[in-house]
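Re: beginner question about structure tokens

> Can someone show what the tokenized structure looks like for a real chain? I only ever see the sequence side.

Sure, here's an example I had lying around. Input first:
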Amino acid sequence: MVKTFSLSALALATLGFNIGAHAAINDFDTPRIYTGIGYGQYSFQFEDSENDTDFDDDAQMLKGYVGSQFNEHFSLELAYQNFDEASDIDSKAEVDGISLAARLAAPITNNFSVYAKGGWLEWDADITQKLPVGSITRSTDGGDVFYGAGIEYAFTSNVQVRLEYERYELDDDIDPEMDVASVSFQYMF
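And the corresponding structure tokens:
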């Protein structure tokens, strides 16, 4: 009897969770605010032909973001990205930035959608080159366009997870390129 009651309660709770997951995800009477945090890996590459320097390394990154979803297809988000130090034998680089992006989504089901995003990244970078005697550090900054794509799954109408790829091609003398793969968890108010 207790087993039957427990199984019935578990089934009812699971049904309630699934109903909650389908509730109001695509129903937008007013824009919804969301916030999220993400973790990823990035590949940092540049080639400085003037100084005969090549650089290629993978490192971690963290990001936090806040956005507004206006309907099931369009949202805007503001993000802070902190790219950990990438280094090789005689060079290291650290980049961070703030971005503003538009996101266009195509819902596949009530819980699953694919999206493309693009925007502007304002960034700062510290690049250090080791020399036989000491090292040279150079700070640079700029602003550049970035783009990406991803998938999003909604566990409930408030909790979602994202898997995404982003490409940053920073215009500078060294033309660095950063490819980012990340997972993010977000909460929609």
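Each token stands for a local structural state, so reading them left to right follows the chain. Residues 48 and 174 are 5 Å apart (CA to CA).
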